[in-house]
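Why do we care about 3D structure at all? Because function follows from shape, and shape follows, mostly, from sequence. That is the central idea of this module. The next example makes it concrete: a single protein chain, its amino acid sequence, and then its structure expressed as tokens.
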Amino acid sequence: MPFYSKSSHPDKILTLFSSIPPITRRKPSQKALTTALNLLVEAGGLDLAGTLLRYCRDDLKMSPNV
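And the structure:
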């Protein structure tokens, strides 16, 4: 995920994060969520960070550990 952030592809961070449950058949960890949020903010994808938070809240039933 850090490579996508540095290469200005914040949309790929969201795609990669949302592909975790189908691949692992488990929810992403809190660390993965925090990492994805930090990278999205660094890459300037604040709207995508909001989308990620809504996806986690509505579909995965998890919230960030703040």
